[in-house]
Amino acid sequence: MVDQERIRSAIRTILEAVGEDPDREGLRDTPARVARMYAELFCGLHDDPSVHLKAVFDEQHHEVVLLKDIAFHSTCEHHLMPFHGSAHVAYIPDGKVLGISKFARVIDSFARRPQVQERLTSQIADFLSEGLRAKGVAVVIEAVHTCMTVRGVRKSGTAVVTSALRGLVLKNQSTRDEIMTLIHAPRRVE
Predict the structure, then answer these.
(1) What pLDDT sits at residue 115?
(2) What local confidence, expressed as pLDDT, does residue 165 receive?
(3) What pLDDT, on a 0 to 100 scale, did the predictor assign at position 156?
(4) How confident is the model over 87-132, as pLDDT tens digits?
(5) What share of the chain is helix, strand, coil (3-state, %, to 5)?
(6) Which of 52, 76, 88, 123 is catalytic?
(7) CA-CA to 103 of 20 to 30 Å: which in 2, 16, 71, 113?
(8) Topology of the domain covering 51-184
(9) Considering the domain 4-41 in this protein, what is its CATH number?
(10) Does residue 147 have an active-site annotation?
(11) Is there a catalytic annotation at residue 76?
């Protein structure tokens, strides 16, 4: 589990190193708050995403199932700054479907740890492909990285898009085209 005492000590040291007084009123509780925050942000390190695959149902549906715009938040492992956006997950079941809320839980399990977007995308695709034994899986993630928008080059509005394709989605161009069209189609329901 997360060693909050070590985090509190480290944050106190960081505050001192940047020239702040960690004992002043506004900062006095900051090390403890940051320790609790890191425990929350990185809880995925201690999650087993396979528990979410228990909500699988027999259903003879063999066409594309797409979940669009699943919001997520993660932390870039290079600067420990947030990145956030939407994940789109499509799969082609092979006689078994997963409860739809479980997709968001799987994404959170992988997102709530120090990450890079490329790995996050592949981890979700591999996990769902193997865990569901799906005929095909596509994961497309669109995200804004604060390590690029609020520091460094400071280019607000920049989005990073990654994809991971498995099975039929990778092998069959028309299936891939169908999924990408569905992802980019305007929403009709709210």
Answers:
(1) 98
(2) 98
(3) 92
(4) 999 999 999 999 999 999 999 999 999 999 999 999 999 999 999 9
(5) 45, 25, 30
(6) 76
(7) 2
(8) GTP Cyclohydrolase I, domain 2 (3.30.1130)
(9) 1.10.286.10
(10) yes
(11) yes
